[in-house]
Design goal:
This protein is an all-alpha fold. It contains 12 helices and no strands. It starts with 12 loop residues before the first helix and ends in a 29-residue tail after the last helix. 31% of the residues are buried. About 7% of the residues have low confidence.
Length: 358
């Protein structure tokens, strides 16, 4: 987020949007430098969040920044942000398994270390891919974005709107869209609908965070946005965990079957005793735990007023940020160069007598 938000709301939207984007680009570049430190556990998270915020800002202010940031650069940033998603998903799965492993009976814990080992291997590969492939691509993209955002745009004869008026218009659209998305979440099985609603909540949050110091009235709305985003994010993460547990149970069963086959054809007789056993690994029990937790989160989402009232709060905040209606009703001002006044002849004296008569 920009450290200095003074004057953003009243500034012309194109220039203010460029200031916000440059600050977010600085944050992403700083987090990228930390990726080389293997002991920095938060580097990847900060890098991903900064890229998400930057991408959301470029998307929200596309009309104001389209003259300096072409669509090609926005697509490359989108692709890089998506390429870091696997590492984040695996981190979520590892964290959830480590919290749940002690909740299982000792006889059902055999599959947890087996799955953790595989997930840790996937995470390490994903991290290495980010360091070796994604980070250099981001460096090149960051240089191009910085040049684009620092370039002087072509002068526009129309007086641009203020950032506050643009944010107000975006909040109105996002509030109505979020209301429609939330209405589609009718059960824990509506995974796509919940994920889409979460994306809308994040966009509204990233829109308001850069101006929170300048507009204190955005603080309570931001807190509720974070609450709803956390709730929808937990629902999404649990769905990812459930899918992964199903895949792991299938892998464990296949591995067990292969070892039984080796034993049947005269292979290593100790092969059947090694590895997780589907009946006792606990993977299916963990899937049931994840499903029960998902249902509790869904009930919390439905019963809480905070999610239902959020679209109306966004609309009310938009009305507060919008300039007075009298000013908004005026037609757009067009700048025209002022011409130098025509040279006037010298004033005649009060009592002037033509030379002929004189």
């Amino acid at each position: 987020m920009p450290e200095r938000s003074e004057g953003l709301l009243t500034a012309p939207a194109p220039g203010a949007a460029r200031r916000i984007a440059l600050t977010l680009l600085d944050a992403a570049s700083a987090a990228r430098e930390r990726l080389t430190d293997a002991n920095d556990a938060e580097a990847l998270h900060d890098f991903r969040v900064a890229m998400r915020r930057l991408r959301s800002t470029l998307r929200a202010y596309q009309a104001q920044l389209d003259a300096v940031v072409p669509a090609k650069l926005r697509r490359r940033l989108r692709d890089l942000a998506r390429a870091t998603g696997e590492a984040r998903d695996v981190e979520v799965q590892i964290s959830w398994l480590e919290r749940q492993r002690n909740e299982l009976a000792p006889a059902r814990r055999a599959g947890v270390p087996w799955l953790l080992a595989r997930l840790t291997e996937r995470r390490d590969r994903a991290y290495e891919d980010i360091r070796q492939r994604i980070a250099p691509k981001f460096d090149r993209l960051a240089r191009r974005l910085r040049r684009a955002l620092g370039a002087t745009p072509t002068p526009d004869a129309t007086l641009p709107p203020s950032l506050a008026s643009v944010i107000a218009e975006l909040l109105e659209d996002q509030g109505s869209d979020l209301e429609r998305r939330l209405a589609l979440i009718r059960s824990p099985a509506n995974h796509a609908e919940a994920h889409a609603a979460r994306i809308r909540v994040k966009r509204a949050r990233y829109l308001l965070e850069p101006v929170v110091r300048e507009a204190a009235l955005t603080s309570p709305v931001l807190r509720r946005l974070k609450q709803v985003q956390q709730l929808l994010g937990d629902l999404h993460d649990l769905q990812v965990v459930i899918v992964r547990l199903g895949e792991a149970a299938a892998e464990a069963a296949a591995e067990r079957t292969r070892r039984l086959h080796q034993l049947a054809v005269g292979g290593d007789r100790g092969a059947a005793a090694r590895g997780p056993r589907p009946a006792t690994s606990g993977l299916l029990a963990l899937a049931r735990v994840a499903r029960a937790t998902q249902e509790r989160l869904f009930r919390r989402l439905v019963n809480r007023r905070v999610a239902r009232s959020l679209p109306a709060e966004l609309a009310a905040l938009a009305a507060e940020l919008r300039p007075p209606s009298g000013l908004a009703a005026l037609p757009p001002l067009v700048w025209r160069p002022q011409r130098a006044p025509a040279r006037q002849p010298p004033a005649l004296p009060i009592r002037y007598t033509p030379p002929a008569r004189a």
